[in-house]
């Protein structure tokens, strides 16, 4: 039985084993999940890291940005996902304003993610300015994943989802942020939508795994939003999203056939009745 059909095989993924994967040049696969069933499928397929992303705001909740996602919503999603996973490392995204006000709040909310929702690590966005907060969270034993480049919680500041760090000043800032976060103790970094050359350079510079999204092939691993790569979320199609399926189209056709069958009296048949 293949991994995709049966239970997940292989050793439990930990923050430590991810570091070892980087050291031996083994690429890390990561995807997002927001519920039990999707998490279970990703785990069975052998995905190394499952991120309970605040992208739920856009791909599940129908918001235009991730900004409106709340801590209580993330706790629910994270609890559902954790229940479906045996092998992968489960990382819970800290939503906008759950960690920026001060490090006490960040610590409390990180603790809730781990204690109430069962995740094994948290992710937060931001560079050098987040280092004190990161140190405090890591100090109490909660692993932190950083997120640099296009940080969607800052969309109103950026005003666009276009590629970041194309200018030398911003590229330098991203380099400094990556170094600072690595020194502050993050176990991994997500780098989103920056030039491939910059991401490659950072992946070589920092000791921790760099997981790219729209950051080229030189990263230590890749992450995509699952609903994007399945073709369920079709509002945007940035060029870094490879569509591995067109499930949105297939679902539409299935729903349409169901409607036709019900209206035409073809469903249910005798075999489908008691
Ligand atoms: O929320 C999310 O899904 C993310 C990924 C895009 C990395 O942060």
Fold and architecture overview:
With 274 residues, this protein is α/β, with parallel strands linked by helices. It has two domains: 15-243, Alpha-Beta Barrel (TIM Barrel), CATH 3.20.20.60; 247-274. The chain contains eleven helices and eight strands. Strands 1-2-3-4-5-6-7-8 form an eight-stranded parallel beta barrel, surrounded by seven helices. Helix 2 (36-44) packs across helix 4 (71-83) and helix 5 crosses helix 6 (131-139). It is globular. The two termini are 34 Å apart. The chain binds 3-methyl-2-oxobutanoic acid. 3-methyl-2-oxobutanoic acid is lined by residues 32, 51, 53-55, 93, 147, 190, 213, 223, 225. The site of 3-methyl-2-oxobutanoic acid has 11 residues, from loops.
Task: Indicate the mean pLDDT.
Answer: 96
**Low-pLDDT ranges:** none
Share of helix among residues?
A: 40-55%
What is the chain-wise order of helices and strands?
A: HEHEHHEHEHEHHEHEEHH
- Multimerization status: single chain
> Which distinct ligands sit in these coordinates?
3-methyl-2-oxobutanoic acid
- How would you sum up the global shape? globular
| CATH arch. level architecture of the largest domain | Alpha-Beta Barrel
Please name the CATH topology of the largest domain: TIM Barrel
Radius of gyration: 20 Å
Supply the CATH superfamily name of the largest domain.
Phosphoenolpyruvate-binding domains
Beta content comes to 5-15%
In DSSP terms (H or I, runs of 4 or more residues), the helix count works out at 11
Summed up, the domain count is: 2
Structural class estimated from helices and strands: alpha/beta
Major sheet: size, sense and barrel closure?
8 strands, parallel, barrel
Text of the CATH class of the largest domain: Alpha Beta
Strand order of the largest sheet: 1-2-3-4-5-6-7-8
Distance between the termini: 34 Å
Strand segment tally: 8
């Amino acid at each position: 039985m293949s991994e995709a059909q049966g239970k997940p095989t292989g050793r439990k993924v930990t923050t430590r084993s991810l570091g070892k994967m980087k050291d031996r040049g083994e690429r890390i696969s990561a995807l997002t999940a927001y519920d039990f069933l999707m998490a279970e499928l990703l785990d069975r397929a052998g995905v190394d890291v499952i991120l309970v992303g605040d992208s739920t705001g856009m791909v599940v909740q129908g918001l235009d940005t991730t900004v409106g996602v709340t801590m209580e919503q993330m706790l629910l999603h994270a609890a559902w996902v954790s229940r479906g996973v045996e092998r992968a490392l489960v990382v819970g995204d800290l939503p906008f304003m759950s960690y920026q006000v001060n490090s006490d709040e960040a610590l409390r909310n990180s603790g809730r993610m781990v204690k109430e929702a069962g995740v094994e690590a948290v992710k937060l966005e931001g560079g050098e300015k987040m280092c004190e907060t990161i140190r405090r969270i890591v100090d109490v034993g909660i692993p932190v994943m950083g997120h640099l480049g296009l940080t969607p919680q800052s969309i109103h500041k950026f005003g666009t989802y276009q590629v970041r760090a194309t200018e030398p000043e911003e590229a330098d800032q991203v380099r400094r942020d990556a170094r600072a976060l690595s020194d502050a103790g993050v176990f991994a970094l997500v780098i989103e939508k920056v030039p491939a050359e910059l991401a490659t350079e950072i992946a070589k510079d920092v000791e921790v795994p760099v997981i790219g999204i729209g950051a080229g092939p030189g990263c230590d691993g890749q992450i995509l939003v699952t609903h994007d790569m399945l073709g369920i979320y079709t509002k945007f199609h940035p060029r870094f999203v490879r569509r591995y399926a067109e499930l949105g189209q297939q679902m539409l056709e299935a729903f349409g056939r169901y409607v036709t069958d019900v209206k035409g009296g073809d469903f249910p048949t005798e075999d489908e009745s008691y």
